[in-house]
Amino acid sequence: MKLYIRQKIFSWADRFTVKDIAGFDKYLVEGELFSWGKKLHVTDSNGNEVAFIQQKVFSFLPKFFVFVNGRQVAEIIKEFTFFRPKYSISGLGWEINGSFMAHDYEITQHGRPIVTIHKEWMTWGDCYELDIAEEKDEIIALAVVLAIDCVMDAAAAGASSGSNGS
Asked: pTM value?
């Protein structure tokens, strides 16, 4: 199953929809404008919160927690490396590999694909295609991909400001 994320450029607070293959809105992702650390709420088409992503505020390297149905299911951490960015997912037994700078990577579990992420380059704003192998993993996979994107943004902001990304 495929989901599509198109983020708007120049937004004061994160707010965007996740669409299905037919182009219909399936999820709404909304950030909190005034909060300590980044927080994203993911709601379904009925307005029910299905996932929540929260940044650990005082952390040497960017770290985000993923909650699904009110329960923490994963922690996304940027690993300390010098040359290529590396991220880890704890709590699910999932591994992540690929080119993060090109937004072309895959999340697997024991070699079994969970979700493949590709960025469409010739679009206005960022547009990502998520190809999720099994429907049962849809919400968790979406939330983990959103958290990875938050970690990448936090790491880039920390690098550009000369801070440690906390």
From this structure: 0.82
